[in-house]
Specification:
Elements: E1 12-19, H1 26-42, E2 47-49, H2 60-65, E3 72-73, H3 86-95, E4 98-106, E5 112-119, E6 125-130, H4 138-141, E7 150-153, E8 156-160, H5 169-177, E9 182-187, H6 194-208, E10 211-221, E11 224-227, E12 231-233, E13 239-242, E14 249-255, H7 257-266, H8 269-272
Parallel strand pairs: 1-2, 1-10, 2-4, 3-4, 8-9, 9-10
Antiparallel strand pairs: 1-14, 4-5, 5-6, 7-8, 10-11, 10-12, 12-13
Helix pairs in contact: 1-3, 5-6
């Protein structure tokens, strides 16, 4: 029998953001992110999640045309020391919050990845996670990440995913089996995908009896127009907060460890998970 990681000792207030970054404007988007972080901190958030590729915007034509200006550089240890991010560093440090924000990253081996940067409470920035499941034409611009990641904030374990990762039940399950209490997913869902957007992340929450924090871009111009709907889900897949399909928003909710414990007691999928589904499947003729 599996034993999920013990619940945290106290609640954690988190914020998810939906916003419209400007394509290619890393400095301007970092300054805008800093303001959003300050707003979230003012509502009590200790962790703030911003959308996928927020610092450069999810705009493939710009990313293809200007790979240097749209990317941040990481050193061999994954540390990012880009001066354009200074406003965001200052906001995290002053407010004492941890920020997860999407970026395009160039690594020392010349790989480019879609990453979740972590700005910690001291203002230090590092690559927290590289997206493993690349979607469509992303494969022409980026390399996939090779491993999952769990962010530790106080005694909360926060699994990291990015957009298309969350479409794979195995990705959220890997986070849960690593002891995640919540799953943070910076994302970029296009207009027209509202049904899938709302289903995937609620399902990942219930599949794994963990909170899910889903951030998303919003606005923009076709064919790169995004649909908002940022949300925070409880461990049964019910939304605690949800944004509209349009407009910038900062949504804040408190993750309650008692809800985590109660859900995992009532719905013991993680504890009851079989090590395998047995030998060869039986085939029947109807």
């Amino acid at each position: 029998m599996n034993r999920p990681h013990p619940a945290p000792s106290g609640p954690l207030t988190v914020a998810t953001v939906q916003a419209t970054p400007a394509p290619g404007d890393v400095a301007g988007n970092a300054a805008a992110a800093a303001e959003l972080v300050r707003l979230a901190a003012g509502e009590g958030a200790r962790v703030v999640v911003l959308p996928e590729l927020y610092l450069c915007a999810y705009h493939p034509p710009t990313l293809a045309a200007d790979p240097v200006g749209t990317h941040v550089e990481a050193d061999p240890a994954g540390v990012v020391a880009d001066g354009r991010l200074d406003p965001l560093r200052a906001a995290a440090r002053t407010a004492g919050v941890t920020v997860v924000v999407g970026a395009a990253v160039r690594h020392p081996d010349e790989r480019r990845t879609i990453a979740a940067l972590v700005v910690d409470r001291t203002g230090a920035v590092r690559v927290g996670y590289d997206k493993q499941q690349l979607w469509g034409d992303e494969r022409e611009l980026f390399s996939p990440g090779g491993r999952g990641a769990t962010l530790l904030v106080d005694d909360w374990r926060l699994g990291l995913g990015i957009c298309y990762d969350g479409c794979f039940p195995e990705h959220g399950r890997a986070a849960a089996l690593d002891g995640a209490h919540a799953y943070l997913c910076p994302s970029g869902y296009l207009a027209g995908s509202e049904h899938r957007r709302d289903l995937y992340y609620a399902a990942r929450a219930l599949d794994n009896t963990m909170f899910v924090v889903f951030a998303n871009s919003v606005g923009g111009s076709d064919p790169w127009r995004f649909n908002g709907g940022a949300a925070i889900y409880d461990p049964e897949g019910r939304s605690l907060v949800r944004g509209a399909d349009e407009g910038t928003d900062v949504l804040v909710a408190t993750l309650d460890p008692a809800a985590l414990t109660a859900t995992r007691s009532a719905h013991s999928m993680l504890a009851d998970l079989l090590p395998s589904q047995g030998g060869p499947r039986t085939s029947l003729t109807g």
